[in-house]
Amino acid sequence: MNPVRSERRSDREHPLERSEPDCGNSILNGPESSLLNASNGVKIPVLISASRIKSKVKELAGRISRDYRGKQPLMICILNGAFVFMADLLRNLTIPVECDFIRLSSYGNDTKSSGRIRVVMDIECLVSAKGGSASGGKGKDIIIVDDIIDTGLTTGFLVDRLRRAKARSVKICALLDKPSRRQAPIKIDYPGFTVPNKFVVGYGIDYKEQYRQLDYIGYIK
Fold first, then answer.
1. 83-92 and 50-67 are packed helices; what angle lies between their axes, rounded to 10 degrees?
2. Are 145 and 175 in contact (CB under 8 A)?
């Protein structure tokens, strides 16, 4: 029987399928662990406040701007979860950049990835290159912008694909890192926050297309 194909990135765990019990983390301590109401009336506990996100994005943009001074990197946003992060990151950069977008999907059901990845919407430069009108990623300095590195399967797939396209360099900028779920070795060059094994939402990250509009990172209990 062929596996069901999900049209959305599905390498994040389902909130009801946690393999580990919730555990304490310094990021949860203090007044930021209070509850806020999402638009649908469900209370979403705060994991990372809007002010902390803003500060971290500015920090990451500063590092990227310094590292790529005199260059014009291509920043590739993994849709849909990273679009808010990408937009804020761009507004804080002090160097010229190119932008592109990709949407990837895992083969599997709605709650668990099989690890097989397919391209739903491709990077424009690679699409053009297939038609012979561009050099694709060859010779480019590329920064992958991701919302969360979870299993690492989706991001790893994209890194390998860009290297095969002969990119000059490929680095990763991720707002969130969840190492407890890692299945593939991934080096995050520009990391934001390390988060515990919770199903996070907000700041562009969804659960069944809900909660993307939150200006903070919360989690579903």
1. 60
2. no
Residues in Cβ contact with 2 at an 8 Å cutoff, skipping those fewer than 6 apart = none
Closest C-alpha to 73, from 96, 50, 102: 96
Residues 191 and 174: beta-carbon distance below 8 Å:
yes
- Model pTM? 0.77
* Catalytic residue check, 150: yes
Q: Which of 88, 102, 76 is nearest to 215 (CA)?
A: 88
Q: Which of 88, 141, 147, 150 is catalytic?
A: 150
| pLDDT tens by residue, the chain, 221 residues | 433 333 345 455 545 444 333 333 335 433 344 455 545 567 899 999 999 999 999 999 999 999 999 999 999 999 989 999 999 999 999 999 999 999 887 644 444 555 677 777 878 765 444 544 344 566 899 999 999 998 888 899 899 889 988 899 999 999 999 998 888 899 999 999 999 999 999 999 998 889 999 999 999 98
